[in-house]
Give the backbone structure.
Amino acid sequence: MSTTTPSPSERYRASAERAAEAKTHLGAFARTLSFELDDFQRQACKSLQEGRGVLVAAPTGAGKTIVGEFAVYLALQRGLKAFYTTPIKALSNQKFTELTEKYGETNVGLLTGDTSINGDAPVVVMTTEVLRNMLYADSDTLFDLGFVVMDEVHYLADRFRGAVWEEVIIHLPSEVQVASLSATVSNAEEFGAWLDTVRGDTDVIVSEHRPVPLWQHVMVGRDILDLFAGETTFDEIAPAGSPAAAAALPLAPSPDDASQRGFEVNPELLTLSRAESQLNFQGRFGHGGRSQRRQQRQRYGDRPQQQETRTAARRASRPQVIASLDRQDLLPAITFIFSRAGCDAAVAQCVASGLWLTTEREQGIIAQRVDEAGQDIPTDDLEVLGFWSWREGLLRGFAAHHAGMLPTFKEVVEKLFADGLVKAVFATETLALGINMPARSVVLEKLDKFNGESHVDITAGEYTQLTGRAGRRGIDVEGHAVVLWQPGTDPAAVAGLASRRTYPLNSSFQPTYNMSINLLAQFGRPRAREILESSFAQFQADRSVVGLARQVRSREESLAGYAKSMTCHLGDFTEYARLRRELSDAENFTSRSKSRARKSLNEDSLSRLLPGDVVDVPAGRAPGFAVVLSSDHSSREPRPAILTLENQLRRIGVDDLEGPIAPLTRIRIPKSFNAKVPKSRRDLASSVRNALRENRPPARGSSRNTDFGLGSALQNQEKKIADLRRALRAHPCHGCSEREDHARWSERWWKLRKETDGLVRQIQGRTNTIAKTFDRVCDVLSAYGYLESTADGQHRISTDGQRLRRIYGEKDLLISQALRQGAFDDLDAVEVAAFASVLVYQAKREDRGLRPRMPSVSLETAVDIVVHEWSALEDVEEQNKLPLTGEPELGLVWPMYKWARGRHLQEVLSGTDLAAGDFVRWVKQVIDLLDQLAKIPGLDPRLARLCAEAIKLIRRGVVAYSTVG
């Protein structure tokens, strides 16, 4: 391959540029590095040096954090402050450690929700929420701020926390330069254009190049096969050109994506896939299929059985996968398993298999570091934390990494892995959110995950984020992404995922109560609306309106042509078409009414069930008699919890019913009942049997309501249909010889009219969307008295409103209402800690059960107040079409109460499903809330003192030990 030799003038110019750069801050910074800057890094750093903001979008592992580190360097050289923000505490801890090693303890601070170290330092690492809170509080810490680094800025697409990134970008003083670091997104230019609008000059720098080539594989049994035929790396399979080229592709990856761009899937994998399909076809319909189904019916009865997918390849066990990677020199590896229990099980399986990945020397180093990490943990807590099994796995070179682990344990794993001492980590996807933990190989066990509601396929963006960890710059010549072959794996679909590595960045911004009242206090209502309309969410909506308006104009022209084609010489065919459509709608409505009514009545009957009701469930996973353990009144689709006569805990929904469900009889559920204790379940099931014997229910199905109250309604509907048919026959156009031809043009007209009207509604809905939501939020705040109207028609923040300004969290208004209604008044410090957990804890829906008895009368009263306030608030939010505030959760009250009273961790977690890491995380969030409350100006001094005292009570043991990373 020939290269063009630079001309003498070009060589001279390049030499002059290098000499000039060497005299700048960038030149001095570059000399501190052990490697040459890449072009995109140099370009971004130059932009910062010249006073412009930057958006850097590059693949994981490309080195974009160097740009953030240069912003920090520039700030120190110019005598200014720099804030380095991250989305998660673990990443903040990691960055704090790195910057402290480089610039010294006196120059670097750390601020997270529960940790404050040297907060007045010139360089402060913090979570993005901390900076948002500073901006609203007009903190003195912002003085002399010159640079803000927003690491993982693509997190603004997160539907729960993403709005915080936009708040920060909008509210930062104009003189602050912002360095935004993002994964490769397909609409980087759009995001950059918005940054340019709200922040001033912002350069968009996109790199598509991975410094370490990434190879894609599929592991079949113990064999690792290439996904693509030929020598095809990460850079080659990407869409040609800029991210905009990728954006032009369909949103969902297609199995044909790779082949359409000329990349052939490995024929060996395609042959295996066809063989597997043929094997399963024969199993269902070939020889033996009928007898096999007969055997299943004999074994299971007439219940339908899910057909197991058979595979032509024997799947390797987890230890065998790691051993295969080790033989091919592909360790260290991160295996992503979308389950905490799966990660822990994988380590246990590898240990049980007798596999060792470490040398005696490495084991000595690991043992020393692990024992140092555990020396400050109380001996009684080591067992409940799983310390010894964790230690055994680490000594062999294995570890899990997930949110249920103690933060300290995760940090030890991260450091041992980074130093090459731990060779195989089994992790959930949270590890992919920016923690600097690269590996030689990344393994994906499955290409689907449970998202909290159902199993869904991972997206191309998620695939990119996960596999991006493979390949350590400066260590590995190449990285490897390995997908394990599962029954039903489609190699073409995997290739489609691997060849689509970009994804769009879409705003999740919504005005909250706290955000709105802070904007009102600082800027007034007119200016607040303008600020909200400058959000990325509105920017995207406005851009989409341009395209929608173009579509509307085009469709209106088509509608005029359709109207001309359906003109009839006998009469008004538009009126005739309207009658035909009304008749069709009426007939369809009649056929749908019964099924709609059935579902509605079923939902209503479920929502009316009360704890202690004995019911007969006709279908689903738990057919038969059962007792209701907890109601589900608030849900749109009620799913009350039940206990079956077989002692199984289940939830029932409309899919389990054949008609409305009603109690057969009732029993009393003892206050001491604990659904997690088998004996309690057995005793309660026995009570149900006794009640059924004493009060024999009607025969199953004899009381089913099949009419659903629709008889008279259906009669009226049939009369309407008959009237429409008569009107249709009497219309002049009914006798037209070209009637059906006109009717076809009419149907096209009505269909296009409906679509066009929908587009018009979209335009109306997207115009000033954010400001309209803000107005509705203000209406709620006014209704609650947080905003007061003045004589000149303006709004003034009330005393309670000023308090709301300092409460940050998803339940901000509910917390303020709890304070306002005196929920904290009769509580002591221990009870304050327990009650605060009600306002921050979020249980999984399936973990919600009976309301537990509170530890004290005072707590019972406080909980009653907050539940009542939440119920009223939900009604107001529904009326104003606002997102609903989450229900207060009581599942952490007892553990927090025991912890605040000084009980051991084992006793605190006994009888709960909480992992130690989860408990520590929730305690830290409680500490964060209590700290917010204690600092509210004008708060009752007694309550402020109790909040501070409660923090001391719960910041102990493993919680205190896990505070600083």
